[in-house]
Amino acid sequence: MSEVLVSIVCNAYNHEAYIAQAIESFLKQKTNFNFEILINDDASTDNTAEIIRAYESQSPDIINAMYQTENQHSKGVRICGINESRAVGKYIALCEGDDYWTDPYKLQKQVDFLENNEDVSLCVHGATIIEGRTDKPLYKVRPADRSKYFSTEDIIFGGGGLFPTNSMVYRREDSVVRPAFYYSSFVGDYPLTIFLSLVGKVYYLDEIMSTYRYAVPGSWTEREYLNSERRINHYKAMERMLAGVNDYTDNAYASVIRKTILKDKIYLHLEQKRLNELAEKDLNDFYNELKEKKEIYGFYKGLSKKEKLMIHLNRFSPNSLKVLVKIRRAFS
């Protein structure tokens, strides 16, 4: 194969029901450049590895797979790092083995933009989120209603769900050496996105070009994020990571980081039904921030009517909230 421009990085673990669809979506990419597909199977206990081997034997010049004999994730190893260290392309494109791309021109569109805009370090796009077990469409991730640049402040406050991981295409040279804060959390896409926004510009293409499966059996979301205790640990890890961003940037983003940590605490308190424990000043400050930026971040969009009511009561009539809590406890 002649020079490779893009390295597709795909990590798989027990994805026998999905990995073929992912690989097929890679192979269907129509480009005027060469790309390689790097797959790392993290010692799957199902038939994932066999499926990957079959595709690798059919396309040995494009697919380069690794087959772990011991699960590396359980040892705390950054799986993405294993794969990316093998990449030779100018650009890295991410997609997990249980997700897939839906636009055959996705890579071409993103690479064209990056080639024409050397100050851009990361290009992302929209995606459809589907339920992991049934493939039922849930919603679309569109962080904006038009193509646009996102600032570091936007990305910090937007959180890990702002951009779909399988939409990310970035310059390999920009991500070789990563700061300490990248390694301080359980997930890598959010801190990586923050870091890339510090290296260069981040551009969002307002097109739906991939599908992300939510809560696939055995996935990180199901194991960690849907478990209440582990979710608390996740929030704490995110707070540590953001503190690391503060240190790395000499507090240049201290204000938005404080608001982001407060936002995460609101989510956590909502889940634990302890919203009234938040400091009134902090909640008022955050409420005012929402009024200024809700058209960008859509914080309320993800809340139920009950949760919205709790926030407003806590801000405008905290005594009423306490009364409602007491009434509920009396009849529960």
From TrEMBL:
InterPro entries recorded: Glyco_trans_2-like (IPR001173), Nucleotide-diphossugar_trans (IPR029044)
Molecular function as annotated in GO: hexosyltransferase activity
Alphabetically ordered keywords of this record: Transferase
Every Glycosyltransferase 2-like domain range: 7-172
One Pfam family here: Glycos_transf_2
Statement: the UniProt record of this protein carries the keyword Transferase: yes
Record protein name field: Glycosyltransferase involved in cell wall bisynthesis
